[in-house]
Amino acid sequence: MRAAFIEETGSPDVIRVGDLPIPEPGPGQVLVRIRAVAVNPFDLYLRSGLVSMPMAFPQVIGSDFAGVVEKPGAGAANFQVGDRVWGSNQGLLGRPGVAAEFAVIDEEWLNPTPALLPDADAAAMAMVGITAHLGLFHRARLQEGETVYVPGGAGGVGSMVVQMAKAAGARVATCAGSPERVDVCRQLGAHLVLNYKTDDIPARLREFAPEGVDVWYETQREPDLETNVPLLRKRGRMILMAGRAARPPSPSDCSIPGTALSSASPCSTPHRPSSGPARPT
Which of 10, 31, 185, 205 is deepest in the core (most CB within 10 A)? Predict the structure, then answer.
C-alpha cells in the first residue's frame, strides 16, 4: 500500500511517501480502507519531535481519518465490512497513523459516519469536533439556555463550538476579523457576531449577557484573562486551549474566590459523545 511515513523525527523533509505492507488486524482491531485524512497541529508536534511519544519506525503519520471497514479482526463485532467510519487520535502513544491506503485501528476508536456526511468533512471535523465537545459538555457542562462566547467562530474549533452550543440550546456569541468571516459565523448560527477589529468586545458582551457569560471557550494563544474573567457570570466556566508554548498570565494568581483549575486531553481516551440533548454531533 502507499503511505506517508517517517523513519526519524525532524523537519518536513523527513516525510517519505512509499510502499509499505498492508497491515493485518489483530484481536479487537479493524482494517480500514482510508478515504480521507486531516492534518492538525499535533501531527506537526509528533513529526518534529516537539512532543515525544513511542513510535515504531517506519511510523505512518496522521491522526484524523475517515474510511470504510475492509476487514474486522477476531472479536471485533461492532462494525461490518463496508461500514463507513471516522476517528481521531491515531499515530499517538505507539498507535500507527492513518496517512496510508489502509490502517489497522482498535475498534474502540471507530465511530460510524453519518450517511449524509462526506468522508473529507468527517476527517476534517474529527479532532476539532472532539475538542469542542470535550470543552463544552465534558468540562463546562453546558446547559440549555446558557450563554457561550467563543473567539474565532469561523476557525476550526471555534466553528464547531458555535454549532454544538447552538444545537444544545445555548445563546452563542463569537467574533471574527473580517466581514467574510463574520458572515460565516452568522451562517453557522451564532446569535451575536462581532468584528474584533472594530467592535468593543467587552461592552457588546455585557449588553448580550448582562449577568455575564456562562461558558467562555477561549481559543486564543495568549488570552487577556484580566479582561475576560470579570465578564464571566457567577459560577461561569472558562475553557482554555492554546499552543504548546502559550503561558497566559493568570489574574490574581488564581486567588479569585470560587476559581477552579482543571485540564483535559483528547489524546488519552476514545471519544464517546454523551447521550441526551448535549450530543449535537
Answer: 185
